[in-house]
Design a protein that fits this description.
mainly alpha, 17 helices, 0% strand
Length: 505
């Protein structure tokens, strides 16, 4: 929760924070980009740092730095200082994700680590986003930016004490860091960082309008390619690229990434839909409570029934929930309010809690086959996929909504003819609200047309969001079909290769 809220408190309160910092919405979004740029890659370096310097030293130093950086947020006074602090915060928060996994898995016996342990830790991670939105209005009332970060500092101090009182089981230490590790990590960090910045800011500056977006993407491609070539030709690589690029891990990473794109519906699109209707977090708190209760119930249910044999069935149920929930949301109108989305959002929240633990368990099993050192490697692959997948989902669907809004606006605007009696009557009714303040009839008529144009834009936005909901339902349906086909093929092949039963005479 400490790490998750630290990441989400700013991301969910950009409109409120921009006023405090005296920035525009686009400028304030750089707070997210500054946080994610180092955060998406730093976990890669933690594999060997942990092995060389020891788990306890790693944990204590990580949480100490995080506490210090959290305290620095209280002294932010302008956008420039906030961006610098968020960049450092992204660095300090990176170890907490892997620590959260290790602490949760430590609490259970080996037979329960890949079932109950994985389900609980992923449920906790999923809860961070709705909880940040639920708590934000109260924290902002207490003290705006400082109110948000007083709470984070409090959580960080609690975690600080817990880590010192309850150390993780130590692992053997060895000198494993080499000079080429630094070179590889720097290249990976530059590549991932540039990609994160492009994904966060691309839809705001628009992809083909800002030349520097293309430059950053080119740098990302070149640096990551060089890093992969270096790692493939090393005896003791920082990342085992061949294992990560194996069929099993690529299939798993693709599955997780696809699902992460689909659940962007809840973390980004549904909230943006209500913001577009003029509703803020303090008016949506019941919806967030419904999401959290649904996640907890689904996470506990998954922990109770999950076995390797049931993974395809659990994934199928999660995708069915996602299809139903997204399709229900695609019927939204201007009059839709949070209560109308309680059921659909509960289904999508449950899908999130149901899908990820089985996928994580499969990855941990594959890592254990290669040895204990691969467990953290897979956790880092998983976390990187989630971070970049979340940013990719926001970028893809945010851009899709923008394009569809322009499409619907053009179609609706074509039907608005000033000489149409119905259009004139509608504009006149809208202008009547200002009749007592505007005496000039021509100006009053122009005001009515302007108000009608605003309604057209709002309706076009609603239609664009509905298109996005429907697209997610379609993607989820396609994923369900592929899952069923893959499962059926595997079952058929297993039946063909199984030894024939010989009757006893």
């Amino acid at each position: 929760m400490t790490q998750g809220l630290g990441m989400n408190l700013v991301a969910t309160n950009i409109p409120q924070i921009q006023g405090y910092l005296g920035a525009t919405n686009v400028e304030a979004t750089w707070l997210i980009a500054a946080y994610m740029a180092p955060n998406v890659s730093l976990s890669v370096a933690l594999i060997k740092i942990r092995n060389q310097y020891g788990l306890r030293n790693f944990a204590e130093l990580s949480i100490a730095i995080f506490v210090l950086v959290s305290l620095l947020h209280l002294f932010v006074i302008d956008l420039q200082s906030a961006i610098i602090i968020r960049f450092v915060s992204g660095i300090a928060a990176a170890p907490l994700s892997s620590l959260a996994f290790l602490y949760m898995l430590e609490a259970f016996p080996p037979s329960r680590k890949r079932t109950i342990g994985v389900c609980l830790v992923l449920t906790n991670i999923s809860l961070a986003a709705p909880m940040a939105r639920l708590l934000s209005p109260t924290l902002l009332d207490i003290g705006q930016w400082q109110g948000l970060y007083m709470f984070e500092v409090s959580l960080a101090l609690v975690s600080f004490g817990v880590i010192y009182l309850l150390p993780l089981t130590p692992i053997p230490r060895a000198k494993v860091i080499e000079k080429m590790d630094v070179v590889s990590y720097v290249l990976i960090a530059i590549g991932f960082g540039c990609t994160a910045v492009v994904l966060v800011t691309g839809r705001l500056y628009w992809w083909r309008e800002a030349a520097w977006l293309g430059v950053l993407l080119a740098i990302a491609i070149v640096t990551i390619t060089i890093a992969v070539v270096i790692e493939l030709n090393r005896e003791r690589p920082l990342l085992d690229i061949r294992w990560i690029a194996s069929k099993e891990i690529l299939h798993l990473a693709g599955t997780i990434l696809l699902f992460r794109l689909a659940v962007s519906e809840q973390s980004t699109i549904a909230t943006s839909f209500f913001q577009n209707l003029g509703l803020m977090n303090d008016q949506l708190w019941k919806l967030y409570v419904v999401m959290m209760v649904s996640m907890i119930a689904a996470g506990l249910s998954c922990a109770a029934v999950m076995t390797p044999e049931r993974v395809p069935a659990i994934h199928a149920v999660a995708l069915i929930f996602l299809i139903i929930g997204s399709y229900m949301d695609s019927q939204a109108t201007y009059l839709t309010r949070p209560p109308e989305m309680y059921v659909s959002q509960a289904l999508i929240a449950a899908a999130t809690a149901l899908f990820l633990p089985p996928a994580m368990s499969i990855g941990l099993t594959a890592a254990l086959k290669r040895g204990p050192n691969y467990i953290l490697s897979f956790i880092i692959v998983f976390l990187s996929t989630q971070s970049l997948g979340g940013l990719l989902g926001q970028a893809v669907f945010g851009s899709f909504i923008t394009i569809r809004e322009k499409f619907h606006s053009n179609i609706l605007a074509e039907r608005i003819v000033p000489f149409d009696p119905m259009v004139a009557e509608r504009a006149s009714k809208l202008a009547d609200a200002y009749g007592g303040m505007i005496a000039d009839k021509a100006l009053l008529k122009a005001e009515g047309i302007a108000l009608l144009s605003q309604q057209i834009t709002r309706q076009a936005n609603i239609l664009a969001f509905n298109d996005a909901f429907l697209l997610i339902a379609g993607i989820s349906f396609g994923a369900l079909v592929m899952l069923l086909a893959h499962t059926s093929t595997r079952a058929l092949l297993a039946r063909r290769h199984s030894p024939a039963t010989v009757p006893i005479s």
